[in-house]
Specification:
The protein is of the alpha+beta class. 34% of the residues lie in helices and 24% in strands.
């Protein structure tokens, strides 16, 4: 579809012919830099005018033109590379008539390379005096106004490349996220875990309760799911004797979108032989505290005007006790589904066809407790009904040795003592199949391959999963998940 060009866009396109008349490729070639802007600022930024003149430092840099001020046969420009901006000074008698003609064709947003020497202007600004000017790439569209930037939040997320150019905070978030992920790696590597990779395409739905994306492999003529969890393959590696494994990877869930949910997201899952729920609590606590301090240099953060401490130890409370604190209902004393349904009805809790007592307990926690939690809190002993892969508690089989970490009303981690009894696991899968028949589209399928792996012997094992996207949001004080994912999923834009 043809889109009408603005006057500015037409002017920029008209310049393409002029570049070619001057023998210059408007979309350029490779360019070798000697320095980045940050390297120059860090090394020479404290030197005064006299010191710079004495050193006569030669530099070759490249970047995008962000500001341009023309004064007759001289000009001041600001060019931006990945990490910083630097001023350059262009004179016709220094770069030559031909190069100056090329320079005069430049617009904001163009990418250029320059060679020159450092000096300090009379206003005291560190600047490159250009001796050689090279055009590298023409921008055919104009950047947003420096002060106004992109105003439409949907456009900001849709055109992240522009957002990164004009919004320093967005760029800082983009650069901080990989540092946080590297910190997770540093933590688990330091604990002796082995980083592994497991398949994204999986033939069986399992490892979590979620609706999947389904795709088809033509050669095998098989449907596959984009994985909703990395859990089951990782536990097979524990069966295989690797003992301590972890994976940082993308998961895919075909569910609703919100400020906390994107259909494609990143987690870290880790499994440790001979550990359990208590061991995983200690590990999650250590991990969260380590990553916070390693990346921010502090345990104390502010998230959406709330002061939160990520310094261990974290509060620990059972799910039923947490519900009792808020509602005065003690589900440990509820013995039947009918009794649970009656309590649910009295508190306006909808009971779906597939609900058992455990689902009602979870619904009460979601409604009355979750949003009341601000400081890091381990909520443990989830109902076995909603924990198909977790080991039952020895003292009360209605509850599983499972916990979730909540901070400011959101879940950040899920972990448990792994169910390693293949007979019990088969019964749990069968219960999940019954839930699917009753309409629970998030229930797991029967995974015979995983059951066979368990039959070869899974040692007592603890496993955990931490949502990296949400944790990045927390550390960087970003309220919407789409703003810490470089390319969030959006509806198609309709061009008119």
């Amino acid at each position: 579809m043809d889109i009408k060009l603005s006057e500015q866009e037409q002017v920029r396109r008209d310049k393409l012919k002029k570049y070619k008349e001057l023998g210059v490729d408007p979309f350029g070639h490779a360019f070798k830099r000697t320095h980045t802007n940050t390297e120059i600022i860090n090394k020479y930024g404290d030197l005064d005018k006299a010191a710079l003149e004495e050193l006569n430092v030669s530099v070759t840099i490249a970047g995008r033109i962000m500001r341009k001020r023309l004064q007759g046969k001289v000009a001041f420009l600001t060019i931006q590379d990945r990490d910083a901006q630097l001023q350059i000074y262009v004179r016709k008698d220094q770069i030559g008539e031909h190069a100056y003609e090329v320079f005069l064709l430049s617009d904001l947003g163009d990418i250029i390379g320059v060679e020159g020497v450092l000096f300090r202007t009379n206003m005291g600004e560190l600047t490159v005096k250009v001796l050689k000017y090279t055009h590298l790439s023409k921008a055919l569209k104009q950047l947003p106004d420096k002060w106004g930037g992109l105003q439409d939040i949907e456009e900001i997320r849709r055109k992240r490349y522009i957002d990164l150019l004009v919004d320093e905070n967005s760029k800082n978030i983009a650069l901080a996220r990989p540092k946080i992920i590297r910190s997770f790696q540093k933590f688990f590597d330091g604990k002796g875990f082995v980083e592994v990779e497991t398949p994204i395409l999986q033939p069986i739905l399992g490892g979590a309760t979620a609706r999947p994306f389904i795709t088809h492999h033509n050669t095998l003529d098989m449907d596959f799911y984009l994985r909703i969890a990395t859990e089951l393959p990782l536990k097979k590696l524990i069966v295989g004797g690797l003992e301590k494994v972890y994976e940082i990877g993308r998961l895919f869930r075909n569910e609703g979108m919100s400020p906390q949910h994107n259909p494609e997201f990143t987690t870290v899952e880790a499994y440790e032989a001979y550990s359990d729920m208590e061991g995983m609590m200690d590990l999650v606590e250590d991990c969260i505290s380590f990553v916070a301090y390693d990346t921010l240099g502090t345990y104390e953060i502010t998230y959406q005007d709330k002061k939160i401490s990520l310094k261990k130890p974290f509060k620990r409370i059972t799910m039923t006790d947490a519900i009792k604190e808020q509602t005065n209902i003690d589900f440990k004393n509820v013995k039947s589904l009918e009794e649970a349904k009656k309590i649910a009805k009295e508190h306006d809790i909808t009971v779906e066809k597939h609900y058992r007592v455990g689902h009602i307990v979870e619904a009460f926690f979601d409604r009355f407790v979750e949003k009341t939690i601000v400081q890091p809190t381990f909520v443990y002993h989830h109902p076995t009904d909603i924990s198909p892969l977790a080991k039952k508690n020895e003292k009360d089989s209605r509850f599983a040795d499972r916990f979730e970490l909540f901070i400011d009303g959101r879940e950040y981690a899920n972990a448990f003592s792994e169910l390693n009894d293949p007979i019990d696991q088969k019964e749990r899968f069968e219960a999940q199949l019954k839930e699917r028949e009753l309409g629970n589209l998030e229930a797991s399928e029967m995974d015979y391959d995983y059951l066979e792996a368990l039959e070869h012997g899974l040692p007592p094992t603890g496993g955990l999963g931490i949502g990296i996207d949400r944790f990045v949001m927390l550390l960087l004080d970003v309220p919407n998940i789409r703003d810490i994912i470089l390319f969030p999923h959006m509806r198609h834009k309709v061009y008119k």
